[in-house]
Amino acid sequence: AAHMGADLEKVLITEEEIHAKLDELAAMIAREYDGKDLLLVGVLKGAVMVMADLMRALPMTAPVDWMAVSSYGSGTKSSGVVRILKDLDTDITGRHVLIVEDIIDSGLTLSWIKANLESRNPASVEICTLLRKPEAAKVDVDVKWVGFDIPNEFVVGYGLDFADAYRGLRCVGTLAPHVYS
Ligand code: PRP
Ligand code: MN
Ligand code: MG
């Protein structure tokens, strides 16, 4: 694999800014779910970094579960039709579910997942996303906690990939043009 840092064009959000924001969000989330049966649900693979840092910033012992989904059809995303590749291991009936995501782009993935989980009779379903691209929204998703609204640029790092690479970058940034050619 190529050297990650060499392919970065610019850093949008630094590692320090990400961690400070997740600490802030964790404090609000901790207050919201105090005394409640909270289940954290991460969406593979992008949410891995956010989950790892958010759960360590939370003072409670909340369990974690994971879903993996993929778009049907052409293979390009944003068809809005989602197929479950890996479902939750957990029965969420009556439980307070917090979906943890790296980014809301068109919003199609999360609006589908949220509706799917809501149909299982949980006590509540809310969303926490590190990033959101307001200009890319195709559907409105009701998101309770957002780390950063970012411009409609292709970003990688901190879980976000280009062709499954660059997820391990500690910051969020854009790639240099040579990467795409
Ligand atoms: C990315 C990202 C979100 C989703 C957002 O996942 O991690 O889950 O796309 O896009 P949307 O708002 O337009 O639906 P991706 O499908 O690339 O899978 P990955 O997490 O494994 O990278
Ligand atoms: Mn994802
Ligand atoms: Mg991806």
Automatic annotation (TrEMBL):
Family from the record: Belongs to the purine/pyrimidine phosphoribosyltransferase family.
| Gene Ontology molecular-function annotations | glycosyltransferase activity
A Pfam short name: Pribosyltran
Where is this gene product found? Cytoplasm
| Protein name as annotated | Hypoxanthine phosphoribosyltransferase
Q: Any transmembrane segments, and where?
A: none
The record's NCBIfam families line, in alphabetical order, gives:
HGPRTase
Record key words, sorted: Cytoplasm, Glycosyltransferase, Magnesium, Metal-binding, Nucleotide-binding, Purine salvage, Transferase
Q: Which domain of life is it from?
A: Bacteria
Q: What InterPro entries does the annotation carry? A: HGPRT, Hxn_phspho_trans, PRTase-like, PRTase_dom
The principal location of this protein is cytoplasm
Instruction: List, separated by semicolons, the cofactors it needs.
Output: Mg(2+)
Pathway field: Purine metabolism; IMP biosynthesis via salvage pathway; IMP from hypoxanthine: step 1/1; Purine metabolism; GMP biosynthesis via salvage pathway; GMP from guanine: step 1/1
Catalytic activity field: GMP + diphosphate = guanine + 5-phospho-alpha-D-ribose 1-diphosphate; IMP + diphosphate = hypoxanthine + 5-phospho-alpha-D-ribose 1-diphosphate
Q: Does the keyword Nuclease apply?
A: no
Q: What is its EC number?
A: 2.4.2.8
On whether Magnesium is a keyword of this UniProt record, the answer is yes
Domain Phosphoribosyltransferase stretches: 16-162
